[in-house]
Amino acid sequence: LNIFMKFRELIVQSIPLFLVFLIFIFTKNEILIALIIIIFTLITFKIKYYHGEWKIFLLGIIFGFLAETTGDLIYKLQYWESATLLGLFPIWLPLFWGYGFIFIRRIGDYIIKT
Description:
Layout (H helix, E strand, L loop, with lengths): L1 H25 L3 H18 L5 H21 L19 H21 L1
């Protein structure tokens, strides 16, 4: 039963992330995707907020911005066809990094605590 509860919690935490991936199938509109990521983040925080998660979200955005900028400008690691943020990458990408930081922290905390 405990394993079932762990698995259920991991699935629940993963739902918003998978929904964002599904949105990519239906739209390429960067602003819409960015807004959806913001809405999912707000909903995630409304359902359950842990102290300091806004800081982690902002750190993820900053780190994502720096990582993508470094990778695109210096190392030419990736090319984005729709790159509206500084002409390097989509505007939603740093927001996705921020949400990813929250997701990874929650999953990691859940695995360690149970």
